[in-house]
Amino acid sequence: MVTIKGLRLILIPIVALLIYAGLSMMSASAEPESIRPATAAEATVTVDSGDTLWSIAEDAKPSGMKTVAAVHLIMKRNGLTSSSISSGQRLVLPAKLSDSSH
Fold first, then answer.
1. Which fold has domain 31-98?
2. What are the φ and ψ backbone dihedral angles of 91, each rounded to 5 degrees?
3. Is the pTM of this model over 0.90?
């Protein structure tokens, strides 16, 4: 027979884990509100369905720059802690990428 104390010992860690997991997913994919608007030297892109951060970086980077470096610059400029992006999300492309001719 399960006692109330035994049930609490099981449920409290499970509930805490679910809350932590939910908050972690929300903060990882949320677009930070403290990101500066794009300057005149920067461009913005709106993420389309099927876009990945890698594909956007590949299209935006100047020749000779590694895609991983472009991904890092985009993540840093937009305050992203994860490479997860969502359709409709707006990303600022740093001037190092925007000023390049493709």
1. Membrane-bound Lytic Murein Transglycosylase D; Chain A (3.10.350)
2. -120, 140
3. no
Q: Residues 68, 21: contact at Cβ < 8 Å?
A: no
* Selected residue with higher pLDDT from 34 and 91: 91
3-state SS string for the chain: CCCHHHHHHHHHHHHHHHHHHHHHHHHHHCCCCCCCCCCCCCEEEECCCCCCHHHHHHHHCCCCCCHHHHHHHHHHHCCCCCCCCCCCCEEEECHHHHCCCC
The answer to whether residues 58 and 37 touch, using CB atoms and an 8 Å cutoff, is no
Q: What is the pLDDT of residues 20-73, one digit of tens each?
A: 777 766 554 445 556 788 899 999 999 999 999 999 999 999 999 999 999 999
Nearest by Cα to 56 from 81, 24, 20, 93: 93
